[in-house]
């Protein structure tokens, strides 16, 4: 006997509430810590002011765009389309209301999650700097727990949003619809939640990425390269904008990114769970939310076990917390599978799906090690870039591109093995349809994706740890604290650079598994509407053309994102040069730079540049689906098939491009840091200058275009899920 719907919802909402309560306690613990010297507080205050001003303006822009999309959704579903026999509710206006409201709630919750992540991070940085005056362990724990507030809050809000919507809509069951039938329809009514979350995440990640890299490139090229002053030097007019960028890009943007990851992927898995209702009942539908709630509890334990000695490697402490989290998540899946997926019709099914979850967990660990290999300077790829820097920037860039391309090999093999193994285990679970054909394979891949997302709370904590420690180092440097304090923050900053790279690897791995899950959910939704399987035939010229357009979109989007960084950075460079020229007292230390001018320039540039590529991603698949539907014959389903081809190729190209951009950028960055340790002449040597050029090229790769592609992959999938009825 599977557990009741009310029991499962209680677990989901209860687990989310525990995580939110613990995040609240952590935030109070962090905020109770010391805030250092007056000089530290002045710098931290400037970072807070800049970050909050940017996010307020960004959210206003995104809010206007979201209202436009919500209006279009309501019009398309409620007025233009009409009713369809496959609709989860018969009245078009009712369907339009459900889809539009879920979109709005997804967008709202995603924005709140991103804001909370940034709000805590910009108040944690100074407390890490202050804690570094006491011990390395104190600073480590403050930074990680500050990051954990974002991680726990983000994942909990996602689960609470989806689970809460499911619970509310359950209470709205029509009198003429049976409870079992209504439960299978609810996932199709809340797909808009994932779309809303992905919509906000794309703009937040893209805008934040443009901001942070424009400020970083501008500050480095004029400050470090031209003026010859250190990084985070208070004389650099762009230094505050650079520190602000760490928060709006890596904290707010990444928070929204992981929020939409969990939301979209959980809804996709719920749709696939509908096909197994005859075996698992509502347990198969709510399974992803339950294991997500249990994963939050595991992340709490993982965060709390992290501690380090003064002379130890902080990265080992963070890895220990991750392994504890992964072990507890594995145990949680064992319990959940046996509790929710045990059925006498297929006695081995629960164990097969548990093995699928283990595959997902192992895949996440594999991605961490693969990313570490290609981005840490202990290993061959980064060392090869550093060696190439001895002959100038050209060979540095050539080698970096080569390393980035090479870095796609192992992830693709890993993803392929994970998908195939989990599909086979699901297929062989003993679940069959009326004709005796196995039907559990796709749900196996969904469970593998859940396994990878089980540690999402801890992973996001590690990710936000990076910008927090980066900001802490900047505050220590700008407030001219003693060298031994800077040494501690430098050690944490180096670890933070590693964690940011590792979490990007995790993000692209989870995006790849999720993309297949969501693509399968799209095919399943079309089958639900039409009664027959959708076959995407690439030999049809129309489908092939749509597929080409999907691949082209990835390149076009990446181009716009990278170009936006260049344009905004040029404005920053011009402003910094102007201040150095017109106010010579800045370099002498007798005159304070105008930090606000650079913050304002980058803010305007980022917000202006994010609109076109974001709108392109949202509008393109809709145009493809509607256009090919119009030219197709009656009953041909050409629109749905063309969108399937478009989505398939865009996903594949997007995964490869994101991997290339993330790893190439990370490798360039750490090649520079490797030289700064003293090899090949160290700082200010010719190889170091070449490495700085490579690092500058890699900045928009790894922090703007690459992370934005994680969101693009899933946004395309959620758009097609929401818009599928319009393409049929």
Can you give a write-up of this model?
- It is a single chain.
- The protein has 728 residues and is mainly alpha-helical.
- It has one domain (5-727).
- Helix content is 83%, strand content 0%.
- The chain is built from 22 helices and no strands.
- It has helices spanning 5-31, 38-80, 92-131, 136-171, 179-189, 191-227, 239-274, 277-280, 282-304, 314-340, 349-375, 380-388, 393-406, 409-427, 441-453, 456-478, 483-530, 541-582, 585-588, 595-631, 638-676, 686-727.
- The two termini are 38 Å apart.
- The model has no long low-confidence stretch (mean pLDDT 87).
Number of distinct helices: 22
Q: What's the number of domains?
A: 1
Largest sheet: none
* Alpha-beta classification: mainly alpha
Q: What oligomeric state do these chains adopt? A: single chain
Identify low-pLDDT runs.
Answer: none
Nearest-angstrom radius of gyration?
25 Å
Helical residues, percent? over 70%
Shape: globular
